[in-house]
Amino acid sequence: MNAAAAFDPVIDVGPSLIGAFITFFFFGCMFVQTYMYSYYWRSDHWMIKVLVTLVIAMELGHLVGTTQGVWAMTIGTLEALIHPTATSSSAFSVGSNVAAILGVPIAFFTRLFFLYRFRRFSRAWTFPSLCGLLSLAHLVLGLLVWSRTVGATNPQGFREQNAMLIEAVLAIELVADTFVTGGIAYYLWDSGRSVLKTSKASKTVRQLTLWTVEAGLATTITDLIIVIAFVTMPANFLWTGIYTFQPSIYANTLLAALNSRKRLSRDRTPAHINTDSLRNLTTFTPEKRTFSFRRMMSRADWRILEKYAYRVHTLSVEASSHAQPIASVDPDVLSVVQVHSGGALLPNLRKLSVSDNDGPDGDEVPHTAAFLRNMVHFPYLFFTSSIRSLELDDVLENSLHILGAVSRAIPLLEHLSFSVWDQAGDEFLELLEDATCRIPKLVSFHL
């Protein structure tokens, strides 16, 4: 009689049961996204594959734990009503404990991927590191809190005894997700200002920013609702129902972010078809450092380049009247390359040289003019903060503001060589003065 009076199915069972149903729904979505990822992105870096596999495995364990927890809550409660003399040593089932504990690392590893993107887009360490510390604090405190459910004997007593710690965990999670989402969206918007205002390129940046905000809002709004429910409704466990399916949202967010790359390129045809892969890159050794392209890149070339891009420390772009001129690359193509690479094409580059060996003949435009225009509009694709030596020859007057891009993208530059093709006016001197003042580590400058 007392058990029946104390039992309220709406408050005690309803939220968790609905949360379990929603978890099953999101698991179905994750299953479809997992198939898409395994089909389209087999060439991803092994670390990304390990991360995805780890999150999927933990989400599967979370689903099994949730199922067992709901079974124990419904059937176990019914058995307690029928046999009121039966007692249980723990207020939470094994499945509920497992599901609660696994939710924390699922959120952590998902956020770890977005922190990686945050670092790549921002090219900074301070703000991403702060978000990383918040994520680490959430992981440690979350594991500490939910591990206490193993020995809890009363759900309401567990909540009251750990109220402040639970509030801290939920608040840190909300702040971390908000900062990461806002940071990535801001730096995407900021980098988009350097993209040519062509319809397709602008649409690509806007679309990527929108997807980032949408993915971040899914987790951030869920975090906010859980915090509000926990603080304002101490008499029920509505917040646990929402918390039940929160890890599934994180897992789907990770896979959606990875699979969204397909949508960026689905309407674009490959630049070249039926070509051999770039075999010489696979035999990269210290004795063989020079590689030359004699044809357009294929998809196989791109995958190999991504694999070995971190090994490239020196890039020399040389043009001459005897060689084939360096053609301009379509801005839409460079926009997609910048998004796909996540930042610089060669992230560990130390020395970059763009030169015209023969120089222009008469009034002829320099052979490197088209390539330099691409660098002006996509500086963060070609320039990386690791560059220490930079040489730019025969820069046209309408490309002189590349100096500003250099000062922003390469703050630790030590050696700069710069030449102007035509006569330089006062505007060039102002740009030069402003740029050199922004490069505190500059040791030598040749004009």
In short:
With 447 residues, this protein is α/β, with parallel strands linked by helices.
Question: Strand order, biggest sheet?
Answer: 1-2-3-4-5
Strand content: 5-15%
The secondary-structure class comes to: alpha/beta
Helical content stands at 55-70%
Largest sheet: 5 strands, parallel
Give the helices and strands as they follow along the chain: HHHHHHHHHHHHEHEHHEHEHE
The overall pLDDT, averaged over residues, is 75
Q: Determine the oligomeric state from the structure.
A: single chain
Instruction: Tell me what the CATH architecture of the largest domain is.
Output: Up-down Bundle
Total strands: the figure is 5
Number of discrete domains: 2
The parts where pLDDT drops under 50 for at least 5 residues are 1-7, 267-291
Q: What is the general shape?
A: elongated
Computed over alpha carbons, the radius of gyration is: 28 Å
Please report the number of helical segments: 17
CATH topology of the largest domain: Rhopdopsin 7-helix transmembrane proteins
Report, as a whole number of angstroms, the end-to-end distance: 92 Å
InterPro entries: DUF6534
Protein name: DUF6534 domain-containing protein
Transmembrane segments: 17-38, 50-71, 91-114, 126-146, 166-189, 210-231, 237-258
Domain DUF6534: 174-263
